[in-house]
């Protein structure tokens, strides 16, 4: 899920000490002289690799754990730079469930850099702006993105189509399905042993953990479980076979301890969410009929168009998830890498969707890491370990403030006190919120990834 809130804070709420933080074959290092990357060539659409490991274990240069957005974007970024990898996915196919996610201009710059931006743009509507409403349907404020930033680009993208587009950029047998990680450990020669639940064993020179918010790789590296932030979200994708009737803008509705939103994704689909306070994560509910009923009950007296979108939502797109994050405190949290094992995306820095930056930051991670690894393979002195440490050092000042900011914004928007909500709706949103500073975090420079170019 990704949704963006106009009620955001800049980095000034952070301690002053953190404000400056915004912002073929190869020659291998001597300490790893046998480490040579090999590129896979592509001749047909992506397919599953069913090769069985030898009893003693198969050897791979780079293994990426997880074929979600972070994993596939990392694999494609490496591929663009002439470096091959193997992606392990625990499911028997791409995880195409879920609804959609919002990508701002930083996400689109990455997608352009890895060569898939144009293809995706042709399938999804560009969102022109946003409107904020009270629960009775009264408009409190509206914005146009390009009035604040001419270069801004916002589109809601179906997760399924994004994953399939990324996967189809990879050579055959780059993704190995039904490959759930059972154990990870460092072998005597410095390689990382990955043992799968079917007993298969792989020895990898580099492991990139892209296995999501409950990452086994992150747990092995010493990270704590993500923290529940006190609210849940229902999400779905309404379907209008004859065409949806909405303008290309994000619509937010704010209540007391409850908020909702909806945005057109394509000419026939509309993404929606409802976020509500709950003191504990509670039991997991997967029955779509029950989820739809619960979602409608929460907003039963809200604008009718929201209820209509929920009614028109196919059961297989409705989900309910707890919102979680992990704050990467300096000198307390583990670093992004341990030896030649490194984390990308939600596996490292899960964040709430209040800034619409979870997927965008995962895409940024992917290209930065790919460049660091490509540089290391060309260097006479730099080691892979140094490249991974450099990646973590560069990315931490970017993602740590965003994670905190997203959390604070979500907490403010989930206020329940009627007096505070009245002030929010009558003063803060109509008169105090400025969209320009809110969008500054979407600035990210990203040049195309091309093998043989300076990176």
Notes on the protein architecture:
It is built from 13 helices and 17 strands. The protein has helices spanning 16-19, 69-80, 105-113, 117-121, 145-148, 159-167, 216-220, 288-298, 304-311, 358-378, 384-413, 418-432, 435-438; strands at 58-65, 86-88, 100-103, 129-134, 139-144, 155-158, 175-176, 181-186, 192-196, 201-209, 227-239, 249-254, 258-264, 269-277, 319-325, 337-338, 341-343.
List keywords for this structure.
single chain, 455 residues, alpha/beta, 8-stranded mixed sheet, 7-stranded mixed sheet, 13 helices, 17 strands, globular, monooxygenase, oxidoreductase
Largest sheet: 8 strands, mixed
Number of strands: 17
Following the backbone from N to C, one meets helices and strands in this order, namely HEHEEHHEEHEHEEEEHEEEEHHEEEHHHH
**Uncertain segments of ≥5 residues (pLDDT<50)?**
7-35, 41-55
Query: What form results from the Cα inertia axes?
Result: globular
Average of pLDDT: 88
Strand content: 15-25%
Q: Please report the number of helical segments.
A: 13
Query: How large is the radius of gyration?
Result: 22 Å
Q: What structural category do the secondary elements indicate?
A: alpha/beta
**How helical, in percent, are the residues?**
25-40%
State the end-to-end CA separation.
31 Å
SSE blueprint:
Layout: H1 16-19, E1 58-65, H2 69-80, E2 86-88, E3 100-103, H3 105-113, H4 117-121, E4 129-134, E5 139-144, H5 145-148, E6 155-158, H6 159-167, E7 175-176, E8 181-186, E9 192-196, E10 201-209, H7 216-220, E11 227-239, E12 249-254, E13 258-264, E14 269-277, H8 288-298, H9 304-311, E15 319-325, E16 337-338, E17 341-343, H10 358-378, H11 384-413, H12 418-432, H13 435-438
Parallel strand pairs: 1-2, 1-10, 2-7, 4-12, 10-17
Antiparallel strand pairs: 3-6, 4-5, 8-9, 9-10, 11-14, 11-15, 12-13, 13-14, 16-17
Helix pairs in contact: 2-6, 2-10, 3-10, 10-11
């Amino acid at each position: 899920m990704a949704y963006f809130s106009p009620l955001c804070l800049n980095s000034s709420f952070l301690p002053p000490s953190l404000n400056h933080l915004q912002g073929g074959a190869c020659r291998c290092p001597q300490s790893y002289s046998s480490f040579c990357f090999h590129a896979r060539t592509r001749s047909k659409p992506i397919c599953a690799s069913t090769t069985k490991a030898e009893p003693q274990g198969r050897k791979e240069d780079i293994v990426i754990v997880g074929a979600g957005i972070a994993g596939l974007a990392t694999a494609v970024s490496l591929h663009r730079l002439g470096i091959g990898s193997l992606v392990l996915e625990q499911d028997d196919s791409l995880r195409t469930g879920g609804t959609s996610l919002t990508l701002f201009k930083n996400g689109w710059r990455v997608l352009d850099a890895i060569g898939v931006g144009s293809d995706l743009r042709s399938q999804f509507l560009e969102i022109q702006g946003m409107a904020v409403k009270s629960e009775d349907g009264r408009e409190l404020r509206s914005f146009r993105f390009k009035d604040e930033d001419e270069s801004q680009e916002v589109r809601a993208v179906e997760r399924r189509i994004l994953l399939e587009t990324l996967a189809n950029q990879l050579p055959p047998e780059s993704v190995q399905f039904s490959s759930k990680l059972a154990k990870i450990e460092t072998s005597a020669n410095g390689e990382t042993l990955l043992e799968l639940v079917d007993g298969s064993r792989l020895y990898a020179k580099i492991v990139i953990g892209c296995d999501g918010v409950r990452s086994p790789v992150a747990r092995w590296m010493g990270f704590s479980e993500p923290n529940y932030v006190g609210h849940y979200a229902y999400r779905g994708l309404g379907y209008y076979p004859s065409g949806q009737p909405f303008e290309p803008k994000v619509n937010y509705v704010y209540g007391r301890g409850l908020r909702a939103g909806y945005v057109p994704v394509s000419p026939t689909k509309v993404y929606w969410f409802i976020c509500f306070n709950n003191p504990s994560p509670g039991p997991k509910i997967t029955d779509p009929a029950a989820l739809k009923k619960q979602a409608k009950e929460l907003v039963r007296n809200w604008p009718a168009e929201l209820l209509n979108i929920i009614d028109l939502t196919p059961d297989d797109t409705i989900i309910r998830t707890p919102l979680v994050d992990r704050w990467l405190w300096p000198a307390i949290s583990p670093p992004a890498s341990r030896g030649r094992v490194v984390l990308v995306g939600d596996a490292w820095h899960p964040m709430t969707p209040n800034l619409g930056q979870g997927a965008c930051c995962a895409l940024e991670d992917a290209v930065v890491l790919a460049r660091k690894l490509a540089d290391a393979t060309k260097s006479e002195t730099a080691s892979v370990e140094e490249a991974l440490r450099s990646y973590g050092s560069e990315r931490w000042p970017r993602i740590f403030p965003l994670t905190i900011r997203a959390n604070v914004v979500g907490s403010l928007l989930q206020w329940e006190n009627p007096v505070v909500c009245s002030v929010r709706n009558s003063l803060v949103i109509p008169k105090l919120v400025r969209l320009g500073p809110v969008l500054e975090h979407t600035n990210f420079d990203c040049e195309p990834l091309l093998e043989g170019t300076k990176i």
